[in-house]
Amino acid sequence: MATVKLKRVYGAADKQDGVRILVDRLWPRGVKKETAHLDEWMKEVAPSTELRKWFNHETPHWGEFRLRYIHELHQNQAANTLLELVRKHKTVTLLYAARNEDHNHALVLKEFIDEMLK
């Protein structure tokens, strides 16, 4: 089974990252495409614009955001594409820009992937 890691896109790339996939809908500020060391940018698996704006990284919305985003992922063909990609590799690192490392969509996405790969 693949190992799925999480990492802020602003951190240095590492050989241990395996396949590096940016999972943000918007390109992260201050990151140059030439130096991001990405293998994929799968913006389609990020939360919808409406959900992202509603959440607005407000911790009190976290529980509801998590439920809504998981619902979106179950309806999202891009999530299936991501699952196929994860199955093909030993290690995958999901990259995100959010400052809050405890409440962000990449955590929910990893939880979704781990659950679907059981």
What can you see in these coordinates?
It contains four helices and four strands, in the order βββαααβα. The model has no long low-confidence stretch (mean pLDDT 96). The chain has one domain (3-116). The chain has a four-stranded parallel sheet, covered by helices on one side. With 118 residues, the chain is of the alpha/beta class. Helix content is 36%, strand content 15%.
Fold blueprint:
Blueprint lengths: L2 E6 L10 E4 L17 E2 L7 H7 L6 H13 L2 H11 L3 E6 L8 H12 L2
Parallel strand pairs: 1-4, 2-3, 2-4
Helix pairs in contact: 2-4
Low-confidence stretches: none
Query: Strand tally, please?
Result: 4
Largest sheet: 4 strands, parallel
Oligomer: single chain
Radius of gyration: 13 Å
- Helix fraction, binned, reads 25-40%
Structural class: alpha/beta
Instruction: Report the span from N to C terminus.
Output: 9 Å
**Total of domains:** 1
* Silhouette: globular
Count the helices. How many? Answer: 4
Spatial ordering of strands, largest sheet? 1-4-2-3
Order of helix and strand elements from N to C terminus = EEEHHHEH
Strand content: 15-25%
